[in-house]
Amino acid sequence: MRMLRFLSHLAANAKFRLKLIVSYCLLVTFIILILGFAYHQISARNMLRNVQESLGNIVLNNNQLLDEKLRDIHAKSEVLPIDNDLYEVIAKVDPHDNESQLKADRRITAILFQYFGGDADIYSSFILTPEYTYGNAERMYVPPEGFFRSDLYRASIIYQGDLVWVPTYSFADAFGEHEMTGFPYEYEKLMSGVKELNLTYIDEQGVFHSLPPDRTRPVLMLSFRTDYVEKLFADYVHRSKLQGLTYGIIDYSGSVVVASDAKLAGTRQAPAWLKEAFEMKQGSFQKVIDGRKRLIAFHQMESTGWMSYIEIPVEDALQGLESIRSYSVLFLAAMLLVSALLAYMLSIYITKPIIRIKKAIKMMERGNFRVRIPEHGRDELGELIRMFNQMNGQIHALIEENYASRLREKESELMALNLQLNPHFLYNTLTTLYWIAVENNQHEMSRIMLNLAEMLQTSTRNKNETWPLATDLDWLNKYVYIMSSRYENMIETRMEVDETLLGMEVPKLFLQPFVENAIIHGLAERESGGIIVIKGWSGPDAICFSVEDNGCGISKERLDKLKSGEVRSTGMANVEKRIKLLYGPLYGLDIQSGKEGGTRVLIRLGRHPDPGSATQVS
């Protein structure tokens, strides 16, 4: 608070030129910051979307390559159990004769090469029996006793003749080769596909043959090194040069097949988002991991059901925004410099006329009211100088006229007092005429005089804009009586007003102009039978009154001109203006005239005067 008061005091005492320069610079800075922030947000969103699409495409393409490879291997493995040569070799081999097993190994190795030898990505291919491992053992050797005790063999049994892929595992741990633990070798970690081979054979006579039931079925084992799968991701990492990028493939149980961190391969360290990813199967989302927001793109492989993913910190994906920030700062500095220069030039243009006015005011303080400022330009400042010169000239004239003005005010007060006596004089005069008519037995004339005097007295005593409806109707009855006397009782007037409305406040004499128009313009030419009906009722959203006659009516052309305002009726215009001032623009008049004659005026009043309108009236 103290700092705010200090800044407020400083701003209040600063020169106008300084205020203008600072405010202009602050305005430009604010605009640039807003635009820079918006541009930064839009750029970040677009860049993040592009990175997200790129990661998704890489994961999808890698999966498609792997799926195509594994589907091809799966198709070849489906043909292997019905290969006649393989059946013949396995069926005839003597498990207790080394020479027989060596001959069988050469033939089976040739058969495996026929099926899988053209695929350089397959690290090794074997057919294993409890007695012997058949296949090319140049790269690696799988001990049969270790294999048939391993999870790989159990997986082949569970899937009953279908090829199943086993996630990355440790060769030494899987096959019980513990003496190899701690020594580096190139097939330390593998991922393998295993399949129990239910070998069958149909001879030339059409007889179906299979291995004896008591004989253990051989198992096909195809292995890949993890670097084969990993290189698909590693190529993208090398090309993208994105820092902090990680990747991997994980099966549904959480076993890591491959990972950017080689130590994780073969372990069970599934990320927390894995279950959600398997539910979505493919896509991307952002997650907070170890306090950092990370973008994750993922896709489930069709052949194995494993989940491939690429993960990158969001700030690393947006590292290209650093240049945008630098350019924004430079742009802001340049704009501030230009703004300060423009503000200084503008301040000179604005403050120079103000300084002239300030000097002129000081001369006026000394009594010199004839000072004039040179007028230049037609803008607001030029207009201000012209108005100052006019004001300065008028001040001198006003000082001279001050005494005379006071005398005129006193004369006006005396005149107003005299005018207040006029209504009272007229009322006394009408009363005198009333008694003269009574003394001369002119009863009709005396009643007219009495009604006129009471009408005058009622009007002059009430100074308000409104009065009770009962007062207005009483005044109207006296007026109708006078007009009926003039037209020798050719006009009949009916009043059908809801008695509950008699106490409400209404605009003074709001019905009289319409009754007068009905008599003078609508019924004046009738010799008899003229009827005027005055009604009043409470509507759903207004208090309504109507004045209806059976006179000659109003032509459509004149009625249209009255409604459009092209032709104005002084009395009706006065009433409508007062109603709108008192109750608001939703209320007023509506004039209707039938084709066969007659006119109906509908007047809508509010239930209470509108407060805003009442202020305007006062």
Question: Which characteristics define this entry?
Answer:
single chain; 618 residues; alpha+beta; Heat Shock Protein 90; five-stranded antiparallel beta sheet; 19 strands
Task: Tell me what you see in this structure.
The protein is built from 18 helices and 19 strands. It is α+β, with helices and mostly antiparallel strands and 618 residues long. The protein has two domains: 359 residues, no CATH class; 127 residues, Histidine kinase-like ATPase, C-terminal domain (Heat Shock Protein 90, 2-Layer Sandwich). The longest helix is centred in the N-terminal third of the chain and has 64 residues. The C terminus is likely disordered. Keywords: Cell membrane, Kinase, Membrane, Phosphoprotein, Transferase, Transmembrane, Transmembrane helix. Its EC number is 2.7.13.3. This is Sensor histidine kinase. One of its GO terms (molecular function) is protein histidine kinase activity.
